[in-house]
Amino acid sequence: MLALFGPTASGKSAVAHALAVVLGGEVIVADPFQRYRGLEIAADSPRAEARAEVAYHLVGDLALGEDSTAGGYAARAHEAIDDVAARGAVPIVAGGTGLYLRAALCDLRMRPAPPPEVRAWAEALAADPAAGLAELEAHDPSVAAAIDASNPRRLARALERSATGQPGPGGDIWAAPYRRPTLLVFVARPRDVLTRLIAERVRREIHDGLRAELEAALAIEGLARGPGQMIGMAEVRAIVAGEMAPEALEDALCNRTRRLARMQRTWMRRMQPDHVVDLGDGPAEDATPEIAALWRRRREGVV
Question: pLDDT digit string (tens) for 84-93?
Answer without folding.
Answer: 999 999 999 9
